Model the fold of this input.
Amino acid sequence: MSSSVFQNQSSHRISTHGVGSVLRSIFAYRISCVGFVIILMLVIMAVFAPSIAPQDPNVQDLYHVLEGPSRRHLLGTDDVGRDLLSRVIYGARVSLLVGLISTAFSAIIGVFVGLIAGYKGGITDMIIMRITDTFMCIPGLILLLVMAAALGPGIHNIIIAITLLGWTGFARIVRGQVLIIRELPYIEAAHAAGASGFRIMFKHLLPNAMAPVIIAVSMTIGGSIMLESAAAFLGLGVQPPTPSWGEALRIGYSYLEIVPLFSIAPGLMITLAVLAFNFLGDGLRDALDPRLRGEGKKVE
Amino acid sequence: MIDRTMTPLLEVRNLQTHFFTDQGIIRAVNGISYDLHEGETLGIVGESGCGKSISAFSILRLIPNPPGKIVNGEVIFEGTDLLQLSDREMCAVRGNKIAMIFQEPMTSLNPVLTIGHQVMEPMVLHQKIGKKQAIQESIQLLSKVQLSEPEARMNSFPHQLSGGMRQRVMIAMGMSCKPKLIIADEPTTALDVTIQAQLLELMKGLTRDIGTALILITHNLGIVARYADRVLVMYAGRIVEKATAKKLYSSPSHPYTIGLLASVPRLDQDLKKSLSPIEGQPPDLLNLPKGCAFHPRCRYRIPKCFTQSPELEQISDNHEKACWVDVH
Done:
């Protein structure tokens, strides 16, 4: 019996990094599993929208405006008679695109800034972190409004605005991690082996600081989708006729009493997307940070 | 045998490393000088906090700044003063000409990189060799340090290895560029006794093979007696006695060395004789006593010890001590 235990141990190779282990930890937790499946569905929806959507989302049918569900229009039609279901399916494209791209930019900027601040320390750290604090003071919606007023509404400006708001979180997380990790003996050993500062930052510090970054990426995508929808709801996001959830919500809101589904459908999609990314992040946190691991969450 | 007439490999001259804290200046290393010849093993012994590790870190300029700073001195290695080199030039020395082996095998390896990756790192950094060759050499190194299944271990992560195995990996990393000097900072402190002996034998053998000089920092006098050619005894940031290992054990001359030797059990002594520890605590480096730093704990002290700090003086061939009193 004891030999089988040993065999089991030696064959069981655990790696602390890599895509494989991240996927494994996602599936180890029910909540992140749910989030992951929803995200996967949304992505498929966005990528294959032309094949999935029953109709062209931009074709207007002014004889059938603001209709309820029917066989022809499963979710009904909007104020100019476009198929709501198709528009909701196409809407996933804008939301996911803005969420993913702005978060990617935020993460890249934030990780870089945080690494430098944490590794250099001293006056460099002080200056960088005060700049970060300044950015954190900017209220999100006001920035969106100002950006739209100065540069005009549109998807590019929304992405820029959300990135400007989002990178600070990453910078603080990474800096905090680096401050802990850089004191560890293996970083000193890397110095003693003659590694340059650049190499130590990216080869030794960054991989060890990645776990909270991965969690933050998931959470930030959710937040970014929410911000994009808010911008679109105020008419600052993508411009018509490009379908987007926030924009559908804005128009549907005026007809809430006539066709409630017009608001409910895009609203639900926003909620679902944000929730899915937060679930994924929650699960990842449980998986990657054993200190926060609660009881009974793990599927065995 | 070591030729002492040649220019030494490493000359440390009046090295002073201070830490500037809110409470005041800590003189962790306060003017130490010594030579090290090619292929020689130098032991540095002393209590915790006596500055032995800091003095070694200072050679590689690995003192965290702030708060630490090398305020004075020269570290002449192969004719160049390391303290004058640029950061970039210093990176080319670290791990290449001078390597370091750390005391914490459990935490001195990066948990997210494979063993192979880490053993190869110094080679990749300092030698222009291809990846295939680096892998080959790493496997050879790992088998040289007697790690079992070296090829399989290349892809292991540190947490899959025991402490002794990790320290073998650390030794392999230290050896990978065939350095002129290896600094081993308490290399075996965290390991159990049987492994300690194995690893020290291994290090001794490997350094002899490639003609590397070794600085062995330890608080274990037994290790020093067996493995070092010469020994520095440090107290409160200064060298209090400098001698060949043989002389230090046969005729210790500084009261502190005598105290250290009396406080460890020896096999060649009557077992019934009880051990006599050194009374008192190591000094507070923030405010060192006036005069000789050891005088509050010294049983041989004379009035002069309270006011004047003794310098190292030659008492016989290859034997120096810093004490006002003639103790024998």
Observations:
- Chain A has one domain: 20-61+71-292.
- DSSP finds twelve helices and no strands in chain A.
